[in-house]
Structures are given as C-alpha cells and as structure tokens.
Amino acid sequence: MGTEKNLPKFSKILLTNLILLIIGLGGLIFLFVTAEPTLGPRWFFFVFLTISGAGLFLPIAYLIQRRFAVEYIPAKVIIREGIFFGIFLDLLAWLQLGRVLNNLITIIIAMGLIILELGIRTAEKSTFTANQYAEE
After folding, report:
1. What is the average pLDDT score of the chain?
2. Domain map of the chain by residue range?
C-alpha cells in the first residue's frame, strides 16, 4: 500500500524495543527475586514497569501505525505512544494497590491518554515547518 514510506525503519523500533525490554524486565525480575516490598523498591517497581511496558508496546504501536498511517510518522511518536502505555500500566498498578481500580476507571484513563495523544499530534501538525522531515 505504500505505508512503508510513512514510517521509520522497523530495525530502529526493534532495537529500542529490545533495549527497553532487557532493562525493564531485568529490573523487575531483580526486584522480585531480591528486594523486600519497602518504599524504595516499590518506586523502582514503577520505574521498571514503565520501561518494560513501553518496550512491550513499541512493536504493537508500529503495527498500528503501519496499518492506519496516511502521512509520515516519526519514530519519536511511536516511542511516545509506548511511554504512554507504560504510564497507563503504572496508573493501573498504582490504583490496584489501593484497591480502587475497576473497569470504568480503566476505560476513563485509557480514553484520557488517547485524547492526550490526539491533542499532541494536533499541536505537532499545526507547527509544521517545510524542512522538518529533511533530516530523517
């Protein structure tokens, strides 16, 4: 369909994916095996959960953009979507710790992050410069 021109090379995304997964999942495994659930390791849990969630979602975001992209999508947009997914996982884990997570809250948070991404994309479109994509 010609959407390959609208996306960066998958090798860039795959390399970033592997680095994030190794750091995130390695950190989570290290925490689960060695740490007691005190305050410091709990914060490291959220950091490593964000990193591993972003790494897990990068190939999925790339495939979604490959299917639906009609104009050029920079690699930073795909990485930002991965980071938003990691933040989404963090919020779900945080709310589950307090036993306040339910389906409605999950949907509201997901819709809020989707609206945030759409707003950021709209702002990026409105600040277009002619030579913006010549560097990549």
Report:
1. 90
2. 3-126
pLDDT band at 109 (very low <50, low <70, confident <90, very high): very high
Centroid of chain to Cα 116 = 13
Burial (Cβ within 10 Å: 0-12, 13-18, ≥19) of residue 47: middle
Q: What is the C-alpha separation between 45 and 39, in angstroms, rounded? A: 10
* Other CB atoms within 10 Å distance of the CB of residue 23: 15
Token representation of residue 31? 């925490």
> pLDDT by residue (tens digit) across 52-104?
999 999 999 999 999 988 888 889 999 999 999 999 999 999 999 999 999 99
DSSP for residue 6: G
For residues 106 and 85, the answer to whether their CB atoms sit within 8 Å is no
76 CB neighbour count, 10 Å cutoff? 11
* Beta-strand runs (E) in the chain: none
Q: How far is Cα 14 from Cα 39, in angstroms, rounded to an integer? A: 33
pLDDT value at residue 133 = 61
